[in-house]
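Data availability excerpt. The first of two example chains:
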Amino acid sequence: MSQLTIWVKQSDTLFAKVMRYTYFSLKHMQFPLIPIVHKALYFCHKSCLHLSAEIGRFFYFTPLFKSQISGSKRRLYLYSGLPQILGNLKIRFDDDVRISGVSSLIGRSDPTIQPTLIVGNNVDIGWQNTIAVGRNVVIEDDVRLAGRVFLAGFPGHPVDSRERAMGLPDKPEQIGDIVLKKGCWIGTGATIIGGVTVGEGAIVAASSVVTHDVPANVMVAGNPAVIVKHLN
């Protein structure tokens, strides 16, 4: 069969050309577009998807998620499924939090420490965020986290390569708290390392890696992130 396929692809004979033409004609055959019909079908398709997502969000995913967190958690808006919660993580949400179900909330495994995630009022936690809590991660009111943000409160592995090869965990001195002060905005793909506080109203540009504290009302960018603009 493989030799026949090669012959059909490469041969210049009339029969091979006819077979190639027939194959590509059948491969690219499409059902004809009927604009009115297919626009109506597309509308029905989107409406059914939206309705099923809203039913799942309201009756299933949101109650399940709220059962795992404390706080007032009023008007919690959960979309796109159920966040992944890993480890012995204590979570508290205040009011008007919007969070993507395509997110991971992770607590470091340590019997002597209770990792705690505290989220204030009017906070956005975007698509594919990962929040890894070593001891404490505090997200204050009005904070915005765009997509694919990584809050790295612990690394997960020791620095020493031999200890990593043995499967040993990271060490307590490698973990650190992360505090995002009121009104700051973390751009798409940014990483915040443990031990960092991002100041009130600050902006972290997309894809930045923040390794030191960020003052209030500045924009930082780069790897490692540095101040590129004062906002006030």
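And the second chain:
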Amino acid sequence: MTIGRDDRIIILGSCFETGIGLRLRNAGFDVCINPFGTIFNPRSIANSVSRLVTSEPFTSRDCVPMGAGAGKICSFWHHTSFARPTEEEFLANANASLAEASRIWKECNKVIINFDTAQVWRHDGKTVSNCLKRPGYEFTHEMLTLDEIIECIRTIRVPGKDFLFTISPFRHLGEGAHVNTISKSLLHLGLQLEGCDYFPSYEIVIDELRDYSYFDADRVHPSEEAMDIVFKRFCEACVRI
């Protein structure tokens, strides 16, 4: 897939993809970036795409008090950047973002999707986009199967739009490097089996740069320098002049 300044673009995924989207916007491209905030796993991204298609507003049933004494309201659909002091404020903000993004979704012709992890967290059996700092015992945690990832990809790829997929080089090390490797491998395999257009963000950072100097101090987030290199490669490979 290639993009030009005449395209309307939506980006969904992790904070890594937000960085690419902001660079595209600063370069003059028409891009909508993460209208639910950063999202990490294929199931949550597929759910978000379905919500953009239906435009179904959020209601008080979706409102969830954040944990850790935050004193704010959010939802399991959203990143905590959407949290507000009251339900009314949260719903006004969340639904305004949804309405605008749904309108853009109907008009856009290019979609960039960034998968970050195959691991999901569920609350009352439903996959969440963010645990909202609530106690861990409220959630179950598991790895999506390859079949489940493929199902998500098929839900995401609605007709009439061009899709480009990437995988974030962000390292999820909470359960160790081995589990992170399995997670990334499942995402790669799902995209390969479905024949998706793919840009190798992961490979550029992990296999080409291959140095912790290209990561932030936490050694899991790629640095701004790494992001600049990936964006330069993205422009060379995917941008029409």
